[in-house]
Structures are given as structure tokens and as C-alpha cells.
Amino acid sequence: MTVSIHQPDYISYLGYFYKICKSDVFVFLDDCQFSNDNMHHWNRIKTPQGECRLKIPVEQHLGDPINRVRTRDELGWKEKHLKTIEMNYSRAKYFGDFFPVFKEMLTADYGNIADMNKVINTEIARRFGFKAEIISSSDMNIGSVREQRVIDIVSSLGADTYISGHGAKAYQSDEHFNAAGIKLVYTDYSPVEYRQQWPKVGFLPYMSTIDYIFNCGFDFDYVERAVAENQKEI
């Protein structure tokens, strides 16, 4: 059984969902520490002028876990994000297929930003047709940290393979995973070029997955084929 783990980020990029696609179980690491540097509360979309950041204002204190960070909805950020998205994607081929669903999810009430991101990302994964079971670390009662916590989560699920992002290489060791009976592999995802609006701007990788969805629908087979082709060229 293969497991991957990631924080519940805001409308994350295709590589995030590629890990879910390749997993039997995906774990939202929703009770780890919130970081302003990570993408728990922001992401990128494409506009005629290039990249635009959508950032969520939050109320948080140093050391708060993601599932205790409140979005400051009283500032009207949801309406601003929706207006910006609609303004830039309303003419995209598949905009009407998903925007009403996204709007309904975004404008619902949530106790924290983790819950909101989990709802949105789980629905996107479902519409892509992924079969992975999706769970949350906050339901697992595992108190270890960093590499050991990853090992403990994967072991508790009875899995033998863990798909990691490359950023974790700085603190992960093959030897430690092997000692626990777990094969550590790193995702083979590389940026996939697809049809975007405003070709004069050039292709922009690492946009939010909604950029792909509005332009290409929920065809994740295309993403997998493109990743495979990229690997052949390496």
C-alpha cells in the first residue's frame, strides 16, 4: 500500500494532486504548524498580465497548527477571490462546469482554514476520479514530529511505500524508512504544459490546479501521460 502526506494547501498545483493520484491513502497533515511561507493560505492564477496571487487573510498566533487558524472572512476575501477568478477565467472552456461548485464550497462556513482546504481539495480529487482514501492526521493521534511522524503515520496505516515531495530530502533518510519496513520514493512529477489562456504571456507552470480545470476539465489522464513523457526525456 502506498501513502502520501501533505498539508491542506489552498487550491494547490497539479503536482499535489499527482501525489494523491499515485497513492492508496492520502493524509492531510492538518495539525502541523501553520507557516506563512507555505501555501496554506495562498496560490497563483494566470491573468493577461501574468501571474496573480490569491492570498487569504488569516488570524493566527506563532506556533498555531493549521487546523486552528481562522480565515478572516469579515474582510470579504472570498468575494474578492471569486470575482478575480471569474474575471480571468469566465471565457475558459470548462469554467461553467466547476466554478459554481467551487463558489459553493468556498463560501460555506468553516471553523478553520484546514477544514476549508480539505473540502475543496477532496472534491477536486474526487472529480479527477482518484480512488485514494483521504484522511486527516488530526484523527490519528500521533504525537511525533518531522521525519519520525511521517514514518509513524505510514506505519500505522500498514503501508509499505511512502511518496514524498523533494523538499523533504533535507530531513529524511532512506535508512530510517527502510528500518521501519517502508520504501521511500520521491514523486516523479514535473511541470506539465497544457492549454492556457493568453498564449502571448507564455505558459506559466505551477499555477493553481483550477487553472488546469477551467482550461482542460478533469482530464487527469493527460497529466499522467505528460509526466511519463517528461520522464522519457530526462
The total domain count is: 1
Helical/strand content category: alpha/beta
Helix content: 25-40%
> Could you give the count of β-strands?
9
The H-and-E topology, N to C, reads as EHEEEEEHHHEHEHEHH
Shape: globular
Strand content: 15-25%
- Give the radius of gyration: 18 Å
Spatially, the strands of the biggest sheet line up as 7-2-1-8-9
- Main beta-sheet annotation: 5 strands, parallel
- Whole-number mean pLDDT: 96
Distance between the termini: 28 Å
Q: Give the uncertain stretches in residue-range form.
A: none
- Note the total helix count: 8
Structural description of this entry:
There is one protein chain. The chain has one domain (2-233). The protein is of the alpha/beta class and 234 residues long. The longest helix has 16 residues, at 113-128. The protein is built from 8 helices and 9 strands. Helix 2 (77-89) packs antiparallel against helix 3. It has a 5-stranded parallel β-sheet with strand order 7-2-1-8-9. It has a two-stranded antiparallel ribbon with strand order 3-4. 38% of the residues lie in helices and 16% in strands. The radius of gyration is 18 Å and the shape is globular. It has helices at 14-21, 77-89, 95-106, 113-128, 146-156, 174-179, 209-216, 220-233, and strands spanning 2-6, 25-28, 42-47, 50-55, 58-59, 70-71, 133-136, 161-164, 183-186. A hairpin with a 2-residue loop joins strand 3 (42-47) and strand 4 (50-55).
Essential attributes:
9 strands; 234 residues; five-stranded parallel sheet; 8 helices; 16% strand; alpha/beta; two-stranded antiparallel ribbon
